[in-house]
């Protein structure tokens, strides 16, 4: 039976390390010894010949890697899928291997140009012939897999390689007879590892350690119960022997310098066909359409990068480049991924970027009923800040109450279906929830070609904004505030206690008094320290005029809380004349509604503080409705909370001394956001001055 097994090898007559196309070759150019290589190859040849028949293909001058016949192609029965090498350095091997296969009567299939696939180096049959494991990520393209499945009529399981040292599947993965698998799990992404674990039971998985992996232990030739490899640790040897294998070590160090070992040096050309099995792949594809300044605004790069980073592959079907500076471009891109699950992940990110289903791919959204009050189906779509539409009964329905990190709930009324963003805890039985990523699109304004969202924020990551930069920002914000006030618009301020500690209280109070603020959102602390300052002249015990800590001042805020509690509320404290100035005073006097959301560290709290967090979130969301601008002043928690509730299109200005906070807010990536890294007290004082300047000039003109 063994004499039926055949391998193809190629004499190392022209073998050398002539170039670098993988990390093993680095530093090894012309460093391998031809004589040692010949000796090592002969030994391997000899060992294999004891167990199988070896055919030889003639080595060709100028193609030093031709010794690695695993990369000639992939053979099943009498059919071959010829390799399409990724690197030009090896592409010249293709015709030589093709000639050999044809001379032996194989049917040769060739992939389209630009769809690389490196043969049995990247595709390994389960030794029972049940399916084909196919690698991608470095040398072979995922898009090659469906064609391979079809030509060879097998099931293809796609595995994504993540570590460039293990650039071919056969460097880190070796199916063995009896359903065993020798492999190095860290070379694969999480999805691939799960797939492997689903197909190969735990007792059959021989996961190797890094020291074995880097001596190419997985690059083994398996013939029935023997395993031929360069080197194995004692532990690995024991484990293979316990599983019933006989390990034969044969040194191949000269070939390791080119990134290959025993398996790479051989190609099994007798793979039995199992006629009862047929072609399948889990690969899923979808076509998307993109419009906008795809090149100038970097949208195309971002889209293609996230497809590849997400484990997928793409084919640009059309690209219409806008001709003028302001003309948008359009593109259709076919996206594929190793499974529907991975595709959904990629698609949800593409949808966030504004990609829409291509018209021939326009499909009904998938919906599932709420399984239990306050929970969504597992696969629910998570909303973003962008205006969203979902396809229901063949038409696009606009989603109401847009916010991020919610689900999309659908109900059916006489006027048609209604879709709205809903927090999962608010879902009720009877509602449907959008699941998956089909039939969903987000609408992005075709941005001005000069606006680049990431750049807008990049100056902040460099640290504190320069003085002039802050002034410019202040001028812009002042202009907007005036404009919104004159239009009768709505400005929401979120503020932390730092506003008071840095001396900004008086300025914020003035903004409220002058009608620039319509809502104040914060926590217990901003109110406590504002009132402390109003009643006792200190903020957290620090004298706000002298800037020094007052004896026993750390108790002040507790006295203040107690006083307000006695009054019953902040409003009552104002009414009874206890509270006569400050931020909270101005809110009460000017009927500016406020919400103070409590937290675990609150002292007191003040009677106005909402300690029921769900109620606090609802009150925040309520007051945020219809906002034109949100001014976020040094409060990470409240600002991020607000950011999540606010749809795109609302201007956000985030001021914080910590660049991390500002960057965090900028992750929304919305163009309307401005970040200023500076002291908030200073910012407010500049802002108030600037508004004063604008207003007085205005008055003299009129
Ligand atoms: N130098 C060759 C390359 O980088 C080594 C090929 C090893 N072959 C393999 N099946 N892993 O392409």
Automatic annotation (TrEMBL):
The EC number(s) this enzyme carries: 4.3.1.12
Keyword tRNA-binding: no
This protein's record includes keyword NAD: yes
Renumbered residue ranges of the record's region Disordered: 357-378
InterPro entries: ArgZ/ArgE-like, ArgZ/ArgE-like_C_1st, ArgZ/ArgE-like_C_2nd, DDAH-like, LOR/SDH_bifunc_enz_cons_dom, LOR/SDH_bifunc_enz_cons_dom_sf
Regions annotated as coiled coil: none
Top-rank taxon, per record: Bacteria
Domain Arginine dihydrolase ArgZ/ArgE-like C-terminal second subdomain stretches: 475-687
Catalytic residues in the record: 168, 264
Domain Arginine dihydrolase ArgZ/ArgE-like C-terminal first subdomain: residue ranges: 387-474
GO BP field: arginine metabolic process; citrulline metabolic process; positive regulation of nitric oxide biosynthetic process
Keywords from the UniProt entry: Hydrolase, Lyase, NAD, Nucleotide-binding
Annotated CDD domains: SDH_N_domain
Domain LOR/SDH bifunctional enzyme conserved: 286-386
Top EC category: lyase
Molecular-function GO term, any one: amino acid binding
Family annotation (SUPFAM superfamilies): Pentein
Family in the record: Belongs to the DDAH family.
NCBIfam families cross-referenced by the UniProt entry: TIGR00300 family protein
PANTHER family, A to Z: DIMETHYLARGININASE, DIMETHYLARGININE DIMETHYLAMINOHYDROLASE
Protein name: ornithine cyclodeaminase
Phylogenetic placement of the source organism: Bacteria, Bacillati, Cyanobacteriota, Cyanophyceae, Desertifilales
